Amino acid sequence: MEEWREYLEYLANRLQRCADSQDILFGQDRNEYREELDKIMRETKKIIHNADGSVTVSHTPFSEEQEEIRKKYWEREKEIRDADQAYIEETYAMISKHLLRFWD
Fold this sequence. Notes:
Blueprint: H1 2-20, H2 34-44, E1 45-49, E2 55-59, H3 64-98
Antiparallel strand pairs: 1-2
Helix pairs in contact: 1-3, 2-3
């Protein structure tokens, strides 16, 4: 019985991680290019105050080096998102394997 309880707690922890991974900021700490991209975005930020009182925010063109960091950031972001999706699918497969036993 104790093993079953431990297994259920393990699944609960996995489900919590799956829920957390749906937060758009969940993968940010795992993306090693985040700080560099944040810096680039601050450095290239261009704010234009329009005559009608509105504000337009854009960025100056990126240098080749900055563009490479941006590219690496988004590639890593996709890797993280894909890994999280695989984790979710694995977790739900584990649940489906024992679904009928959960009410025993």
